[in-house]
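User: If only I could read backbone structure tokens as easily as an amino acid sequence. Those tokens are not coordinates but codes from a learned vocabulary of shapes. Could you go through the record with me and say what the backbone is doing? Here is the record:
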Amino acid sequence: MGEDAGLAWAIRNEAKIERVLTQSHRRISVVVGPHAGVGLRLDRFLALALPRISRSLIQRWLNAGYARRGDNEIVSPKHRIKAGDRFEMLCPLPPGILDIDDEPPPLEVLYDQGGVVVVNKPPGLLAHQAGKHLSGTLLNQLQDVAEARGLDVRDARLVNRIDRDTSGIVLASLNEDVHRSLSNALQGGHLRKEYRAICTGMPEPLHGHWRQAIRDDPTGASIARQLHPSGQISHTEYEVVEATPSNSHALLHIVLHTGRQHQIRIHAAGNGHPLVGDWTYGPPCAELLGQALHAARLSFPEPHSGDEVVIEAPLTGAIARLWSHLRAGGELTPRERNADENRRLDLCPQDAIDEFLPEGWRRPTWLGDEELRELAEATGEWDDEPDA
């Protein structure tokens, strides 16, 4: 255990730390122990005591005056910790934050050796914190595993990531040396990632390669990426495994030779075969939360021995049931994109509510109309009579 990790462990063992999530705030109370952390600056002490919260966020909270001592005096980030010090931080949350604090399903661990953990992520679970989603993610669950083993939770890290509505294999590490080894293997092309997907139509040829470059939406308004010559070099290999009787849909085996965000999804759609249920690049359906995409097989060099490790996660659940339905001649149930999906794709007309916002405000993609108004009113910057 490194010096910082050992100190963090000692601080958390000695200090009394309580966390409470209210409707509008996160309240964190800390009582310093008799030895561990004494003499440290408050900002460093809190970063060690609260490893699941980023240091930059802790610094913003302290600079905003959210930390107070037992006498209710605002305390500086430079304050030197004394034994028995008592602090409380009352930090405002984005509207709607409680919606994401439900317990995620238990981890399905496929491999757990030598600081390497491989899990089978269900669809709908975020891999890591994003936007207002501060908890209930796969990374939070891996931090729980690290903490239970007496490890520094900051060393729990994802080596590869898959989209929220994609299911399947995710590779993670629980210490820095293992993470460095696996990351080098990933960058060197020594990790082989294979997927199963259901697409619309029948790709031709039956075994081929999609190589269009991919870039972000240059306006930043949409989560959808674009195929464009100026983008990142990208390479997806696909093979048709099976087709429905009418060739209306195909089950694909896919090998990723590069790992760009949304790569499989945009390559499939850009070549005329959007993945079933992928509302970002094609029509949504009622049968799935999102795209019919599953990370089914992963091979990687074991960090200590170099031996190849092969992990498989067969297609199960909603995607497997849907494929059985389609190959038996069944059809999809179409649906319209909802307001949130349209907003994230920048497909909504300019909402009338936006004209009430102060100059320079931009609605985050995850923030709805009512939440936006609540936030603006709470900051005192809501304009009930906008200029015509």
